[in-house]
Amino acid sequence: GSKGSCSACHTRHRFSKEQARRPDACGKCHLGPDHPQMEVYNESKHGILYQAFRDRLNMDRDQWIVGVDYQDSATCSTCHMGATPERPATHDVGERISWTLRPPISKKLVNWEQRRDKMKEVCFQCHGAPTVEGFYSQFDEFVELYNHKFAVPATRIRERLMELGKLSKADFDDKLDWIYWELWHHEGRRARHGASMMGPDYAWWHGLYEVAKHFYTEFLPEVERIMGGKKAAGPVLEELLFKDPQHHWYKEGMSKEELQRLEEFYQKRYGGEDVK
Hints:
single chain; mainly alpha; 2 domains; 58% helix
C-alpha cells in the first residue's frame, strides 16, 4: 500500500521537483489557526530571504544539496526533507523533529537526540554552532515554559474537576472544554510553532500572549464558577497551580515593590513617559 499520495506535493501533471520544494506546496495544508506553519515561515528570516532570493535557489536541479547548490535561504523542504553533503534527502518529514508540538503537552520524541542531530546537520551548512545551539536553547526553554506554566496545570485541573464529578468526562459538552481546547490546540500550537520556526509574532502575540490571556481571564474564572466560587476552588488551585510562584499574582495581586520595579523598568526603557 501507499504511505501517501505523491501528487499531494508533486502535483499533476508535471510531477515537478521544483514545485514540491517551494513552501507553497506545504502551505496549502499547513496554515490556519491551529497549525500556521506557512504564516510563521513567511514572517521568519528564512521566509523573508526566500522571497528575496528564491530565483537563486536552483530548485529545478536534480541534485539539490544545501550548502552546495544553494545557500541564500531555506525552505520547508530544505530543513525537513532536503539533502546535505553527508545525508541523502528523505520523504519522512518527521525524521528531524525532536519535539512533538501537536498535543496539549509537548513531549520529546523517541530518539529525539538523534533526530535533533539530523536537523542540526542541515543548520550547520549555513550557520555556525553558536547560532544553532542558541536557537535550540531558546526553543527548548520556550516549550518548557508553555508546558509547565500553562499546559500541565490546565490539563491537571480539568482532570481533577472530572474526578470530583464537577465536569463531564465527555469532550466539548462544557464551556471549559472549549476554553481548554483553544488554549492548547489553537493558541498553544501557534506559540510553539512560532518558536520552532522563529516567527516572533506567532510565538508571542498570536501565541503565548493569547495563551496567558485566556488561561487567566477565561480558564481559571470558569474553573472557579464550576466549583462554586473562588473559596470552593481554592484547594484544587492551591494544589495544582499556586505551588508555582509564577501564578501567585493571580491569587494575591502584585506587591507595591513589584509594581515599582515594573514602572522603573518601563521608565528606563521608554523614557519619561507616564507608563501607569
